[in-house]
Specification:
Strand content: 15-25%
Helix content: 25-40%
Bound molecules: adenosine-5'-diphosphate, magnesium ion
Number of helices: 10
Distance between the termini: 50 Å
Largest sheet: 7 strands, mixed
Order of helices and strands: HEEEHEHEEEHHHEHEHHEHEEE
Structural class: alpha+beta
Number of strands: 13
Shape: globular
Length: about 350
């Protein structure tokens, strides 16, 4: 079914999409419906704000990303940034630019995804803006959250001898993207009834299409009484993020190839694509796992934490940032990153 946006008009569309939204957080004093939302945070909190801009054709491809998934992911990536500060996301605003190609049902699907993410993570939608655009779809979400005063974790606090930890596993979202791109190329020009076969690769697709933010890890760290010295979420790839932490903290690091967590399906897929698995795990983006450092005195506590892996340690700045391979060789970590603005030919895999 396809109902043109014009049948509702801008105000009608906003009303339709935001119908039934009820704030659940104490800090949301007034939500959608006035010139601005009103928030009220207690004095013992720090207020965290983050924003993300997603452009069709640059950050997402609607030929294989369903709009509901896109909505879910655009909200979750913002929550992930707030958790990466050791905070809790509470509110979002959602701004949308859309061309005539999109109908009311498309926007319903997008909002169903955004609303589902908000329900699951306990976040209120408190406002936004809606405009027509000349080409494509643009989504910008801003997230507001809270952190305990004195417990907010920055990128610049890593100290020599600290342990480097990551949650979950790495490289799967990137392999999921490769898989979708391959199927898109293979199916081009074929009939609509030709369905790609993703059997056995569900995890990779899920990691690409429906990522989750690691609220559970933040909770576990809190329960264990651990406050990381530095933390960030992995959106551009482990190498690039580690370099951010080291640069901002004025330290070096050593990470061990054998300790980098990788899922079985990621390994199988890398082999199928004839790609270096470690390169994928170091440089593949969009995993939204947490990368953090903890004092060595927390070693026992962190070692037993489920879903967290120790991958190395922080060193003096003079030692640089090094990857130690399985056979004991040392390579300088480079920020290849995952960045759609970057040219393919810059690719420089650290391990062959
Ligand atoms: P203004 O003219 O002040 O920009 P709007 O008519 O655009 O107001 O918006 C009316 C209300 O609807 C505001 O509370 C605004 O935050 C909210 N709103 C507008 N667009 C969206 C959207 N895409 N998602 C959620 N809330 C929205
Ligand atoms: Mg407006």
């Amino acid at each position: 079914m396809r109902t043109e946006i014009a049948t509702l008009g801008e105000f009608g569309l906003i009303r339709h999409l935001t119908e039934g939204i009820k704030p659940s957080n104490k800090s949301t004093k007034y939500s959608i419906g006035d010139d601005a939302a009103v928030l009220s945070y207690p004095a013992d909190k720090e207020i965290l704000i983050t924003t993300d801009l997603l452009l069709e054709g640059v950050h997402f491809d609607l030929t294989y990303v369903p709009l509901k998934h896109l909505g879910y992911k655009s909200a979750v990536v913002n929550f992930s940034d707030i958790y990466a500060m050791n905070g809790t996301p509470r509110q979002i605003t959602v701004s949308i630019g859309l061309s005539k190609r999109f109908c009311i049902e498309d926007m319903e699907a997008l909002y169903a995804g955004i609303r589902l993410a908000c329900e699951e993570y306990g976040v209120d939608i408190v406002g936004g803006d809606t405009s027509s655009s000349l080409t494509g779809l643009t989504i910008s979400i801003t997230c507001i959250g809270e952190g305990e005063k004195g417990k907010v974790v920055y990128r610049n606090g890593a100290k020599e001898t600290d342990l480097i930890c990551v949650s979950g596993d790495l490289g799967a979202a990137y392999m999921g993207l490769q898989l979708l791109e391959r199927e898109k190329a293979a199916l081009r020009g074929k009939g609509e009834d030709v369905q790609p076969d993703f059997a056995g690769k569900e995890y990779l697709l899920e990691r690409q299409l429906k990522p989750e933010a690691r609220r559970d890890i933040i909770q576990k760290l809190h329960e264990a009484g651990i406050v990381p010295t530095a933390m960030m979420d992995i959106s551009d790839g482990l190498s690039s993020e580690l370099l951010h932490i080291c640069t901002q903290s004025h330290v070096g690091c050593r990470v061990y190839e054998e300790h980098i967590p990788i899922d079985y399906q990621t390994a199988v897929m890398a082999e199928e694509f004839n790609m270096n698995l470690t390169t994928c795990a170091l440089n593949g983006g969009e995993d939204y796992e947490l990368l953090f450092t903890v004092p060595i005195t927390d070693h026992e506590k962190i070692q037993d934490m489920e879903g967290v892996k120790l991958i190395g340690h922080i060193t003096k700045p003079e030692l640089g940032c090094a990857l130690i391979t399985r056979d004991g060789q040392e390579f300088e970590l480079k920020a290849q990153g995952w960045n759609p603005l970057k040219d393919e030919k810059d690719a420089n895999p650290p391990v062959e």
